[in-house]
Amino acid sequence: MSASSSRRYRPQRFADVLGQDPIVQALKNAIRSGRLAQAYLLSGERGTGKTTLARLIAKALNCSALTTDEEPCSQCSSCLEIANGTSLEVIELDGASHRGIEDIRTITEGISFGIGPTGYKVVIVDEVHMLTKEAFNALLKTLEEPPPRCLFLFATTEPHKVLPTIVSRCQRFHLHRIPRSLVIQKLQRIAKELEIPIEQGALERIADRAEGGMRDGESLLDQVIAFADGKVTEKDVETVFGLPSKASYQRLDAAVQSGDFAFPFTLVEELYQEGKHLIHFFEGLVDHFRAIVRANLQGTDRPPYRHEQAMSLFSDLVRRLDLFRQAHHPRVFLEETLLHIIRSRYVLPVDLLIKRLEALEQLPPQPQQPPSYEPILSEEQERPAPALAPSPTPKQTHTFSPREETLLQFAAVELEGIIKR
Ligand SMILES: [Zn+2]
After folding, report:
1. In terms of Cα–Cα distance, which of 188, 212, 172 is closest to 49?
2. 3-state DSSP: the chain helix, strand, coil percent, rounded to 5?
3. Is residue 326 part of a domain?
4. How many CB atoms lie within 10 A of CB 317?
5. Is 351 helix (H, G, I), strand (E, B) or coil?
6. DSSP state of 75
7. How far is the CA of 192 from the centre of ligand 1 (A)?
8. Which of 2, 29, 263, 347 is the most exposed place for a label (fewest CB within 10 A)?
9. 58 and 187 belong to one structural domain
10. Does residue 88 lie in a domain region?
11. Measured in angstroms, how far is the CA atom of residue 63 from the centroid of ligand 1?
12. Do 267 and 331 lie in a common domain?
């Protein structure tokens, strides 16, 4: 099977366009009432359906058996020609590879002849922001004096790069990323039509990688199907794209819980040996902590992370992700990051530190005790602060016990870290 799902499953009806209901409705209304604008600018991320929508409009305008719901029939000669890319009414230009004024001239000459008695000429320019300035100007001239029954559809991922003079002549629609659940549904339908069994986990991992782009989702699915032997599993998806397994993050949580400082080195070695992309693991790490913070906000604290700790780690990781991308030694950087996460359990929250310092200031001198090195786990597990009893001796004579010294050193290191930040 080739990378053809996206072509084969390109929506043939407006009803199949995913996640863009208000835009589809507005366009259908315009087609129904015959009040189409001269030009439309369709903007949106990769794979949100811009050119698909443009072709559907072209089909609807030229279809000889349009349904009452403004859906093209997909069977008349015009619909078939457009689907095959052989229609004379529809001119498509890829602005990324055909950027020059000559390319635009070919189009403008093409639209001036050959419009049938009922047809509509539709010019679709993909990635329109890539056109040269001269090409834009030539296009602008045509837009200023458009031939009758001619419609321009411009698609772009970067609308801010399109000349304002062009934008002002277009009606604009911004296509949103397709919700994850819809991407999953669609992929599921494709797999079903191909009669290929696929695990729900596999669909979810593909949808996550597609990031709201249907075309990406479909071509990722193609790749996994080509690899898998029979049933497509989550493991297949992980193998094909070098993704870390979800279990690695759960193992990290367990290492935090048990204070296993050797774990980062073990895990990174494993990822390395299995040929996983460390950047994917890092991205997954950010997602993992994002999920923990969200769970905490919804009131379900996820052990072994305190709310404050999880939020702080989440911000650290977001910052570190950028640094990781530029790191000369990504492997060492990742190990250090994982150590940082495990150590975070032993870092005191600032408010607790202040409370402690205040308590220490009020403390009477105590007899020397052997130093105590047990880790300070969390506020809940911490022994109660010493009672703030009035000091029987004057403060000037106060000396710190080893335990207090340790705490103060902790505090000093923490404060230093906070100041640096
Ligand atoms: Zn038709």
Report:
1. 212
2. 55, 5, 35
3. yes
4. 21
5. helix
6. -
7. 27
8. 2
9. no
10. yes
11. 4
12. yes
Distance 64 CA to ligand 1 centre (A): 5
Whether residue 11 is contained in a domain is answered as no
- What spacing in Å lies between the alpha carbon of 62 and ligand 1's midpoint? 7
Is there a domain that residue 259 lies in? Answer: yes
* Number of domains present in the structure of the chain: 4
For residue 348, the 8-state DSSP code is: P
Where is the domain boundary, 223, 241, 259?
241
Ligand 1 centre to CA of 77 (Å) is 7
One-letter identity of residue 160: H
Residue 329: alpha-carbon gap to chain centroid: 25
Distance 150 CA to ligand 1 centre (A): 18
Query: Do residues 171 and 51 both lie within one domain?
Result: yes
Read off the pTM: 0.68
Range(s) of the domain holding residue 191: 180-241
67 C-alpha to ligand 1 centroid (Å): 9
Distance (angstroms) between ligand 1 centre and the Cα of 81 equals 10
The answer to whether residues 164 and 236 belong to one domain is: no
Per-residue model confidence as pLDDT tens for the chain (421 residues)? 444 555 566 788 998 888 899 999 999 999 999 899 999 999 999 888 899 999 999 999 999 999 999 999 999 999 999 988 888 889 898 988 888 888 888 887 777 665 666 778 999 999 999 999 898 888 888 888 888 888 999 999 999 999 898 999 999 999 998 899 999 999 999 999 999 999 999 999 999 888 888 888 999 999 999 998 889 999 999 989 888 888 899 999 999 999 999 999 999 999 989 888 899 999 999 999 999 999 888 887 677 888 888 999 999 999 999 999 999 999 999 999 999 999 998 877 777 778 888 888 887 766 666 555 555 555 444 444 444 544 444 445 556 676 777 777 777 777 777 666 6
CA of 353 to the centre of ligand 1 (A): 72
- Ligand 1 centre to CA of 142 (Å) is 28
